[in-house]
Design goal:
The structure is a single chain. The protein is about 20% helix and about 45% strand. With about 250 residues, the protein is α+β, with helices and mostly antiparallel strands. The chain has two domains: about 110 residues, Roll (Diaminopimelate Epimerase, Chain A, domain 1); about 110 residues, Roll (Diaminopimelate Epimerase, Chain A, domain 1), CATH 3.10.310.10.
Length: about 250
């Protein structure tokens, strides 16, 4: 099975060509520990898209969607597996997505429409689902925050009980913010989170009236989220790097 290790703005994955179906899901947690990655991405055959992406987090649990994972697996499909084209339709458990290679290391993904806006009341924060449930919290200084502890406290509080990603966002300028994210399944801070960046951009745009584009500085690099007036067309873009081939 063709395997590569990727970093999508610091979010690390082991990406595996599993069209043969030979990879055992029980191996995912061990491989994450051995390779020091946030998760495993499996590229599999699909009857409704160019291919299917399955996402297994570092704890061995499978999740529906991963924005940075979509960008990493797109690079893998095009450059490692040499699948034809530069735009792909990708099946996930969370729905169908479309990704496009803009240049050798820059990938854009069309996200699905968000939902569950405001389903839960959060102090100084916003709840929404961008393929993954997220809480977005405004803070004065993300660098002074204990993200591991604060994120864990919120993630495992009622009613979430470990089923929410937690984003802490510091506004830097109009259309620009700094973000740090605590991810469920990883049970810690990751250097970036694609669905978290998307959720944070939408929350800031709705709350502050920002238009068209939000740039988010993550610890792993910059992500950009573009959107139309009604948030029906939302795009996540950023850099992808291949670290290791196996």
């Amino acid at each position: 099975m063709k395997t590569s290790k990727y970093s999508a703005t610091g979010n690390t994955f082991l990406v595996i060509d599993n069209r043969s179906g030979d990879f055992f899901l029980t191996e995912a947690e061990r491989r994450c520990r051995a390779e020091n990655t946030d998760g495993v991405l499996l590229l599999e055959d699909s009857s409704i898209a160019d291919f299917k992406m399955r996402i297994i987090n570092a704890d061995g649990g499978e999740v529906d969607m991963c924005g940075n994972g979509l960008r990493a697996i797109t690079h893998f499909a095009h450059f490692d597996l040499v699948l034809p084209g530069k735009t792909y339709k990708i099946e996930t458990a969370g729905g169908l997505y479309e990704s496009t290679i803009l240049d050798d290391n820059f990938i854009k993904v069309k996200m699905t429409e968000f939902y569950d806006w405001g389903k839960f009341d959060l102090d100084n924060g916003f709840y929404l689902n961008t393929g993954v449930p997220h809480g977005v919290f405004l803070v004065d200084d993300v660098e002074q925050l204990d993200v591991e502890q604060s994120g864990k406290d919120i993630c495992f509080s009622e009613p979430f009980l470990g089923e929410i990603n937690v984003n802490f966002v510091q506004i830097e300028d109009v259309g620009k913010a700094k973000i740090r994210t605590y991810e469920r399944g990883v049970f810690g801070e990751t250097l970036s989170c694609g669905t978290g960046a998307t959720a944070s951009a939408i929350a800031l745009a709705k709350h502050l009236g920002w238009k068209e584009r939000v740039s988010l500085n993550t610890r792993g690099g910059q992500l950009s989220v573009h959107f139309d007036e009604n948030f029906q067309n939302v795009f996540l873009s950023g850099k992808v790097e291949k670290i290791i081939n196996e």
